[in-house]
Design goal:
single chain, 558 residues, alpha+beta, Immunoglobulin-like, 5-stranded mixed beta sheet, 24% helix
Length: 558
């Protein structure tokens, strides 16, 4: 019997505990709180930002804490709720307090939303607590935004906007924002946004006010300018760090809503490794902000990247594109310049050393100017035998009779007139010299030590009548043709040393020719001197006519 009583007691305790758990209210989660300061006599439509406006009245309950005010869903009541929103159709000071909306969704979860309202008897002109955030910036044009509760009420209830300034109506303004272009100090004041809306065929009014402040100092432009970079390209060295400046001018006395920065291929540079961006702002009245992008080490990818410098303010955005270009190394340029210089020097040296060889090589293929077609002889050979010693006389005879003809005539095809060989016995010497001189294209003067000293006799070297003519009259005639008539070019060949007196003993006309063109020194005794392609004979051939008076095969000339 006692065992049965204990079992029944335990069962009753279990049933009571289970029943109490089922009938207990679920625990609700408290969410955010909003607070408004409002004027007496206005209307209010309030919907918490976390609530939807289409909730059924069964899902939500509004009540005022520590108050006997009963909030119902009856739309004829001064204070009621509908669809999750709380309506105050005529605000009174006793409506001040904390209101709670308890929302139970179909899943059984519970949430509490809080709304605190304070109602004042006076208006925003005398009570600063009724003012929303002030409008204060350095922009030329001002924008006064309608406070959120009024904006939201007009948007949800399809109301109409009007504006007041310092309790005076502003006709013609029916937008959610009030804009003032080129604001001046006279435009500052309290601007009130008024929304007139209808509920149950009755008209109500909600309002919100802001203070607009306008600085007395002038404000310049609102359009921004990119001061740098000014070029689309900037040179950089791969593997070396570089700094890029993005400098933006926002205007005078502008200290807000101004920004500058860099983008790399439209991506923020702060997200890229190896990039560092810092900012520098000019503290003067002219607002200039500079974004400095530091690239620790320029890579090949950076040379392909498009960097954008941008500047923004409240109205406009400007940008400039910059790309990095690999700086050309100076080494290839210097190397190329040195190569060109060396080539030019080499060519100059080559031409200097082989100018005569080149001239002789191409002479047969070049046109001939001033060609004396009726000439019989290519050169008239002038020499002097008097006042020379035995050795010099032998050397001169050897050169005149053997060496000169064997090279110029036999190997090169030229025709020479040489006294003692080509003159006709018995012919008048004066006429002979004049006639042969006229028929010659060059005057070849053979100089020897003592040559040109005149026809004066000495005890050691008596002057014969014939020797006095050779090297005397023909010299005079030849120099006359070369210097005065300019009919002949002169070729000067020096045999032996000039001696201590040099060329001072020669006639003045001959000295003049020597100054213009130094004599060619005959290298007597040197190896290969008699060869027709030696350096000496190339110089002589260069001074001789391009075409011999008597035509020979080309192979025999070159």
């Amino acid at each position: 019997m006692r065992k049965m009583d204990h079992s029944r007691l335990l069962f009753l305790i279990f049933v009571v505990i289970r029943t109490s758990e089922e009938t207990a209210e679920p625990q609700c989660v408290d969410l955010g709180k909003e607070s408004y300061n409002l004027s007496e006599g206005e209307a209010l439509y309030f919907l918490h930002y976390d609530l939807e406006n289409n909730l059924s009245d069964e899902e939500i309950t509004w009540f005022k804490e520590n108050s006997s005010i009963e909030i119902t869903t009856d739309e004829n009541e001064n204070v009621h709720y509908h669809g999750g929103a709380l309506f105050f159709l005529n605000l009174l000071t006793e409506h001040s307090g904390l209101y709670t909306a308890r929302h139970k969704d179909p899943s059984g979860e519970c949430y509490n939303y809080f709304f605190k309202v304070v109602v004042f008897k006076d208006g925003p002109m005398t009570n600063k607590k009724l003012l929303y955030a002030d409008i204060k910036n350095s922009d030329i044009s001002k924008r006064v935004t309608c406070p959120r509760p009024v904006d939201h009420t007009c948007s949800e209830l399809k109301g109409n906007f009007t504006w007041n300034k310092d309790n005076k109506p502003l006709p013609g303004y029916h937008e959610v924002d009030f804009r003032i272009d080129n604001a001046k100090p006279k435009d500052k004041g309290i601007y009130t946004c008024i929304c007139t809306w209808t509920h149950n065929n009755k008209e109500y009014m909600s309002s919100g006010s802001r203070r607009l402040q306008v600085d007395d100092y002038p404000i310049s432009i609102r359009e921004i300018q990119i001061l740098s970079p000014t070029n689309k390209e900037q040179f950089a060295d791969e593997g070396v760090g570089i700094k890029l400046n993005c400098t933006v001018f926002c205007g005078t006395n502008v200290d807000r809503h101004c920004d500058a920065g860099w983008l790399a291929n439209e991506n923020p540079v702060d997200q890229i490794d190896g990039y560092n961006q810092t900012f520098i702002q000019d503290p003067s009245n002219t607002t200039i902000i500079t974004a400095v992008l530091t690239i620790e080490q320029v890579s090949a990818q950076d040379l392909k990247t498009q960097f954008k410098c941008f500047g923004t303010n409240s109205y406009t955005t400007e940008s400039a594109i910059l790309t990095l270009q690999q700086r050309e190394s100076i080494i290839p340029l210097v190397t190329g310049g040195l190569c060109v210089l060396l080539i030019c020097v080499f060519a100059a040296v080559l031409i200097k050393c082989f100018a005569i060889d080149l001239a002789l090589l191409f002479r047969p293929y070049l046109p001939i100017s001033n060609y004396k077609k009726d000439a019989v002889y290519d050169a008239y050979v002038v020499y002097q035998m008097q006042n020379v010693d035995k050795f010099t006389e032998d050397s001169l005879c050897q050169f005149i009779t053997n060496v000169l003809p064997s090279v110029l005539e036999e190997k090169c095809g030229y025709r020479l007139f040489i006294h003692g060989r080509d003159d006709i016995p018995g012919e008048d010497l004066l006429e002979l010299v004049e006639d042969r001189m006229q028929q010659s294209r060059r005057l070849m003067v053979i100089l020897t030590p003592g040559s040109g000293s005149g026809s004066e006799s000495t005890d050691q070297h008596p002057v014969s009548p014939r020797n006095s003519m050779i090297g005397g009259f023909d010299w005079q005639v030849g120099l006359h043709h070369a210097l005065f008539q300019r009919e002949m070019s002169v070729i000067l060949i020096q045999l032996g040393d000039t001696g201590p007196q040099g060329y001072t003993h020669l006639p003045a006309g001959l000295q003049h020719l020597i100054l213009k063109s130094a004599p060619i020194q005959w290298p007597e005794g040197s190896r290969g001197a008699a060869a027709w392609n030696s350096r000496f004979w190339k110089r002589v051939r260069y001074l001789m006519p391009a075409r011999p008076a008597k035509i020979y095969p080309l192979s025999a000339i070159i």
